[in-house]
Amino acid sequence: MINEIRELVRLSGVSGNEAAVAEYIKGQILPYVDKVYDDALGNLVAIRKGEGPKVMLMAHMDEIGLVATFADEKGFIRVAAAGGVDPRTTIGRPVQFENGVMGVFTCGSKAMKELKLGDCFIDIGAKSREEALRRIEIGMTACFLSETFETGNCIVSNALDNRVGCYCLMETLRRIKNTTCEVYAVFTVQEEVGLRGAKVSGFEISPDVAIAVDVTLSGDYPDTAETAAALGKGTAIKIRDRSAICSREIVEDLENLAARKGISAQRDVLSGGGTDIGSVQLLGKGVQVGGLSIPIRYCHSAIEMADRGDVEATIGLLTAYLEK
Amino acid sequence: MNKQLSYLTSLFGASGSEGDVRQAIINEIREYCEKIEVDRLGNVIAFKRGSMEAPYPLMLSAHMDEVALMITHIDGDGYLKFDSIGGIDARILPGKHVVIGRHKLHGVIGVLAPHLAKDDAPAPKIEDLYIDIGALNKEDAEEHVTIGDRVGFDSDYQEFGDGLVRAKALDDRAGCYALIEIMKKDIPFDAYFAFTTMEEIGCLGASTAAYAIHPQYALILEGTTAGDIHSDENRSSVCKVGEGPVISFMDNGTIYDRQFYRLAMDAARENGIPVQTKQAVAGGNESSAVQRSWGGCKVLAVSVPCRYIHSPVSVAALSDIENTVRLAQAILNKLL
Amino acid sequence: MKNLQNYLFELCGEHLPSGFEVPASGAKGLLAPLVDECTVDCSGNLIGFRKAALPNAKKILLDAHLDEIGLMVSKIDDHGFIHFVNLAGFSPVCLPAATVTVKGVRPLPGVVATLPPHLLSAEERKKPLPMDKMVIDIGYPAERVRALVKVGDPIVLRQGCNDLLNNRVSGKALDNRAGVAVLLDVLNSLQKMPLPVDLYTVFSAGEEFSGFGARHAAWELGPDEAIVVDVTHGTSNNTPKDKAFPLGSGAVVGISPVLNGEVTARLFELADRYDIPFAREAMGGRTGTNSDCIAASRCGVATGMVSIPLRYMHSGCEVADLSDMHACSRLISRYILQGGVVHHE
């Protein structure tokens, strides 16, 4: 588990620039599916043929990051956010541009008090605007770097949102033995900027059932949201978030199945946040949607933390659902 | 003087009421295309044959509508309350002249004399403002105005300075103008030209036009905000008037296709067309609706930099508009 | 035969927060006798179909959303108090000391609990309470609560309908059961008449959340035209003059860039011709109702909007005037009978 997650989080995949992640995943899952293609936006779609209902599984490949917008006279690079970057939890991190150029995401000491993205910049050690623009281009993305390690039963890393979901989906594809479902495993793009990839992929596939595998916020550390999800209590079956209300049939199916198979599961109710099913729920004549989430602490920072047991439970329940 | 551009910007076409613009455009393009359709949301969708059949459906679009106001209430003294159609900064409104409804009734947006205003008065909000048409009372006003009437800026077209133009609605009549110019010449392969409605209130027209066309590639021609009115070298100007069309990599609505972006940059270089990229992630346009129609589409936006956009006096460089036409043509030639 | 008020009071008795509209047996029971076919689709829309007298008729869709605002259980604490989040549409203002129904294993009455003022500092008393500082008390110890209620169960206001003076009524969920009642009344009045159009009546799901129901219905049914019935703000103390309508104004017809000009003009014309009281509601942007997504469905739908003035929207004491609902009903019936405006393609 840890080795493959390590591989996945090492790849840079800021929203809009997910090709490297797609390439890696494609190589890994090819033997386990009947067909793989990518669409106009870069979603990677893997199909496992079947006679039964069309089930679309989604895990987004993109991660939050920065986009270079302007280099000032002294060579400091001003940035915009791709996705929900909170400078307070990411400031001081090393970053890497898509062409390999390294830098640090930082700010002046005056700005520290009430930190806004506009006060922050990337320093790549350039001495002038000209030098900066020789080394990077305006429009290039940069991702946050961090160490990936295990502590106790937990994994800590950058980009667990949502490479850990990608891992669950890849592993599920490897594990399913018998399913009557026609499975569309979609590794989506541009989730962090507004669930965009899932929208077009969902339209194209037009599934009967769509299930998103993503991370959710846990409420089990000091001074955080009043939410029931906690690390180590199993896979979190989504009831609703800001983007979607899940179909009751799917929630019931997943809960009954978890109980029967002895897979630990909890319920996930979020007032904020969204996931790929949010845009799929609005498509066409309607589709039944559900979600399995891996609770993580410190979401959208470079030190996200997840529990290995929850990851395993997510794979277990997803596999069981498809084999049912 | 650029008569075509002057004519196009003089027409009034608030979002949802683009009739005059639509008719003018249809008259203009009729002889340059095979087929013209107007859909239920009022989009003009024209199909033009190229030298070759297209390998995939291609869409070029520009929106016809402009920001405007709408009358929402007539008060007891005959003053008119209004709402904005599209995003308008209320601070630009006091003291401006407007025209109301089909009969182009003249009105002004009232402003408190500075002698009477408090020193620390906050910036005006739309709900604080009103239009004065000189009516005596409510009944008198109701003779001339109905709730729901659209209100446009009273503004003329003027070329000035070093190749600049001042007019209302350059966003996006400049794009409409460019589309028409492209249609007048031969194109390398078949394409759909969409003149869309209701961009300013959320890109409704583009979404149904893209649904009808089902494009695989789409090029959106737009007007975009230029912030080049400061001299601080450490602040981004977003883009600069006179330095060429703007090719965006990302805005608040869309992350543009990377290969398409590269292709446009290459096309510009090979043809010696000046271009710039948008040095900020700001604003949005109908690319978002087109990109996410059907199973997705590769989109790119090319924009004319405009100062004081969404005001009666937007300013652009004529050279940027002409270069937008050239760039779009170069992109078409390279797409094949 | 049922009248508008019967319809309204029966409908308001149902608890149907966004996403939990099925089975809506009450509403279904009222709709089914008035149409040829009555179905529930996968998103929870209740759809009634009446066929036109002649084949190849134009399709008109009538929409009123069935769902109401709601809360959702997010956590049950060790003292048995239920913590909650907004499911759709709630503002914290009307919550302290409200009575609610928690839709657990069975409908459970509860109160929204807040600390009494004696225990609050002067500073705390000045501030409105945020939702995450309130809890719901259903009177059981934690163990029982956990057996009866699960994280994810919906919660609605517990409030019946009352008559006020002058034909006015008050209750919860008048947004938009008032609209649903109007459409039932329309179908009721058209019952014995041959129709010039294929008429789809959609009591849509999820409007207070994301509008998914109306999107699905418009996509699947592919109508030529649509009329959306919803509520708009009724004038009371402190409401802005240009954004609220006095109760008794009649049918409030929407004017917006999103709405089709011909449909809107025809609604005004019919109101004039048949002496139906009406008012004009101008909106510079989108309407914020199902009209927005229906109008942009597929290649576009010519959409009109008729609204009922409603005071104190999204509270447990919404107030509407039955005469306004009657005006809406008459106007829509006329519109259907004269066959709409656009050409069928």
What does this structure look like?
The complex is a heterotrimer of chains A (324), B (336) and C (345). Chain A has 324 residues and is α+β, with helices and mostly antiparallel strands. Chain A contains 9 helices and 17 strands. Chain A has helices at 2-10, 19-29, 87-90, 129-135, 160-175, 196-205, 248-261, 277-280, 308-323; strands spanning 35-38, 44-48, 54-60, 65-71, 77-82, 94-97, 102-107, 120-123, 141-144, 149-151, 154-157, 182-188, 209-217, 235-240, 265-269, 288-297, 304-307. Chain A is globular, with a radius of gyration of 20 Å. Chain A starts with a helix and ends with a helix. The mean pLDDT of chain A is 95. Chain B is an alpha+beta fold. Chain B folds into 2 domains: 3-66 and 168-335, Aminopeptidase; 68-153, Peptidase M42, domain 2 (Elongation Factor Tu (Ef-tu), domain 3), CATH 2.40.30. Helices cover 26% and strands 24% of the residues of chain B. Chain B contains 8 helices and 17 strands. An 8-stranded mixed beta sheet of chain B has the order 1-2-12-3-13-16-14-15, sandwiched between helices. Chain B has a 6-stranded antiparallel beta sheet with strand order 5-4-9-6-7-8. In chain B, strand 1 and strand 2 (44-48) form a beta hairpin. The two termini of chain B are 35 Å apart. Chain C has 345 residues and is of the alpha+beta class. In chain C, 26% of the residues lie in helices and 27% in strands. Chain C has helices at 4-12, 25-31, 122-126, 142-148, 174-189, 212-221, 261-273, 291-295, 322-337, and strands at residues 37-40, 46-50, 59-65, 70-76, 82-88, 99-103, 107-113, 135-137, 154-157, 162-163, 168-171, 198-204, 225-233, 251-255, 278-282, 302-310, 318-321. The longest helix of chain C has 16 residues, at 174-189. The two termini of chain C are 38 Å apart. The interface between A and C is medium-sized, with 25 and 29 residues.
Name the CATH architecture of the largest domain in chain C.
3-Layer(aba) Sandwich
Give the largest interface pair and sizes.
Answer: B-C, 33 and 28 residues
How many domains is the backbone of chain A divided into? 2
Distance between the termini of chain A: 25 Å
Order of SSEs of chain A, N→C?
HHEEEEEHEEEHEEEHEHEEHEHEEH
**Record field, number of beta strands of chain A:** 17
Describe the global form of chain A. globular
Question: How would you classify the helix and strand content of chain A by structural class?
Answer: alpha+beta
CATH homologous superfamily designation of the largest domain in chain A: Zn peptidases
Task: Please give the CATH class of the largest domain in chain A.
Answer: Alpha Beta
Could you name the CATH homologous superfamily of the largest domain in chain C? Zn peptidases
How many helical elements of chain A? 9
What structural class results from the helix and strand content of chain C? alpha+beta
| H/E element sequence of chain C | HHEEEEEEEHEHEEEHEHEEHEHEEH
% residues in beta strands of chain A: 25-35%
Q: Within the CATH hierarchy, at the fold level, what is the topology of the largest domain in chain C?
A: Aminopeptidase
